[in-house]
Amino acid sequence: MQRNKFGRRNFLWAASGFGAASALPIAAGEKQPKLNEGCITDVGSLRVGHFTHTERLTGCTVVLFDQPTVAGVDVRGSAPGTRETDLLNPVNTVQQIHAILLTGGSAFGLDAASGVMRYLEEHGMGFHVGPAVVPIVPAAVLFDLNVGNPKIRPNAESGYKACEAAVASGAPEGCVGAGAGATVGKLFDLRSAMKSGIGSASVRIGGTDLVVGALIAVNAVGDVLDYETGKILAGARTQDGKGFLNSISQLKNGSAASITPGAHSTIGVIATNAALTKTEATKMAQMAHDGLARSINPIHTSMDGDTLFAAATGTAKTKADLLTVGAVGAEAVAQAVRNAVWAATSIPGYVALRDLPKT
Asked: Of 141, 172, 199, 236, which residue has the fewest beta carbons closer than 10 angstroms?
């Protein structure tokens, strides 16, 4: 995996355009959630790889499946950037996929999926059509062109390198891969936004061998909340940088939003080792959005392109109860969102939660 570097040119850009990051106090006694709530790789039979550009903070993340895998998708935001989502409709022919790509770079970043396809083709993984092998790689993008030079974005080589970096356990979190340029709290002005990233979590269902995991790149218009307490963890800040605006309260009080259309999106993957059909995987993806609703407010706006994929490897011995797996999947998503902002680190112009002083 490439090491992040934020060069002098980008520093000057950030400092002049958005100002220095301001510190926000964390309430005395507030506990930092554990960052070891598992990882999507705990599901097994899949690997996660990140590629992060060194020229600026952007990148892509790939989930590679060891075997062809059943999948579904649900798009809730009104400004999505996606690829190969129609084939995940349960009525369509293709029944299994081989990888899922999450990427920065807005629509330009979809080019990274070509690199994932090339990697899979070289390894003989794909949909066999006569002599050809055609890898099926659904993808979703988030908008991070506001962070650094917008001419630098993930491409086919980025996707290929993410595949080469894929690991079967302990995938990194924070400002890497698709989460490298992610920010949150952008409802009123980018100057009040905070740094976010990509987070992961997993939940084991007691008394079974079933595991559900989530991998979420959090790049929301809204504020990120601790889903267990309702407290704002990261979001739009006050002008003095000493508190949170509370975006929903501002809207209720009549403040007008001032944001760039389609310049956001929270995207991710929910995976389980349960055996599901395409219809069931699609329902799981729908239920997983509840995890976003618990931890991001507002969510699914006209300015977001929120997209969640669900994948079922079918390796568990326990027969799946869709209600349980779907509900637990939403829980894993909420945990992953929280981990994304806790794992993020500050960059010039965007302060991260973990770098704020405790009071």
From this structure: 172
